[in-house]
């Protein structure tokens, strides 16, 4: 007679969800303790006071400015004046090619806006700066 070998197999626990008892909430009706009453408010009386705007039959002004930024290379200026309905002025700037553009202008009710554009100086070769090289940040 040969000996019998018994091997125990693992048994898995069976899962069964527990039943949940849910009851509907109890509804209680309560009368609101406060009732808002409408309050009559009269609209304010608005009176328009029309003050005449000041009118200058001969407006006049003058202004001028200039920029000379050595860091960016930005060089420009403007001068303008007005006497009545006639505006006169001039502005100038340095173009990308190194020349100076000058614009003289006049605006009036008879002829409208008129501008005369001229360029001064010879075209200069502008050195183009190389864009900075991008370097990836180290990953830590």
TrEMBL record:
InterPro entries listed in its UniProt record: CHIT_BIND_RR_consensus, Insect_cuticle, Insect_Cuticle_Struc_Prot
GO CC annotation, single: extracellular matrix
Keyword Transcription: no
Keyword tags: Cuticle
GO molecular-function term, one example from the UniProt record: structural constituent of cuticle
Short name of any one Pfam family annotated for the protein: Chitin_bind_4
PANTHER family: CCP84AC-RELATED, STRUCTURAL CONTITUENT OF CUTICLE
Protein name: Larval cuticle protein A2B-like
Source species of the chain: Frankliniella occidentalis (Western flower thrips)
């Amino acid at each position: 007679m040969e000996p019998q070998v018994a091997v125990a197999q693992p048994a898995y626990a069976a899962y069964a969800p527990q039943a949940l008892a849910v009851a509907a909430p109890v509804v209680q009706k309560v009368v609101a303790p406060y009732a808002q009453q409408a309050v009559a408010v009269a609209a304010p009386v608005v009176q328009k006071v029309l003050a005449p705007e000041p009118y200058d039959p001969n407006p006049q002004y003058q202004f001028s400015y200039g920029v000379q930024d050595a860091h960016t290379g930005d060089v420009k200026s403007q001068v303008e004046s007005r006497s009545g309905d006639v505006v006169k002025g001039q502005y100038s700037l340095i173009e990308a090619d190194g020349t100076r553009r000058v614009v003289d202008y006049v605006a009036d009710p008879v002829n409208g806006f008129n501008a005369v554009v001229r360029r001064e100086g010879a075209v200069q070769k502008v050195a183009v700066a190389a864009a900075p090289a991008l370097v990836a940040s180290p990953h830590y």
